[in-house]
Amino acid sequence: MRFLVDAQLPRRLAAWLSETGFDTVHTLDLPFGNRTPDTLINDVSTDELGFRGFFSFAKEAL
User: Fold this and answer.
1) Which of these, 54, 29, 32, 28, lies nearest to 43 by C-alpha position?
2) Of the residues 18, 41, 43, 59, which has the maximum number of CB atoms within 10 A of its CB?
3) Is 18 within 8 Å of 11 (Cβ atoms)?
4) This model's pTM is above 0.85
5) In angstroms, rounded to a whole number, what is the distance separating the alpha carbons of residues 40 and 56?
6) Residues of the chain by 3-state class (helix, strand, coil), percent to 5
7) For the chain, what are the domain ranges?
8) Interval 41-59: pLDDT, tens
């Protein structure tokens, strides 16, 4: 199982998930860190990381 941990959650959660064997990325590890736009996070999650069934709700889309 793979996890993308968003900015509002602590980096230690991503570290803990990784230590327990899950493939995990925190938004701080993305090129723009926590300033990464939601649309780019969605692209990264589906294209680069291969996450399927991941939904990103960007406020621009509301």
Assistant:
1) 54
2) 41
3) no
4) no
5) 10
6) 45, 15, 40
7) 2-26+33-61
8) 888 777 765 655 544 434 4
Residue type at 51? F
Q: How far apart are CA 29 and CA 31, in angstroms?
A: 7
Alpha carbon separation from 5 to 29, 39, 57 (Å, rounded): 10, 15, 14
Residue 43 is encoded by which pair of tokens? 């692209």
Please give the structure tokens belonging to residue 54: 């991941």
At which residue do the structure tokens 């570290």 appear? 15
Is the CB of residue 7 less than 8 Å from the CB of residue 27? Answer: yes
Amino acid identity of residue 49, one-letter, is: L
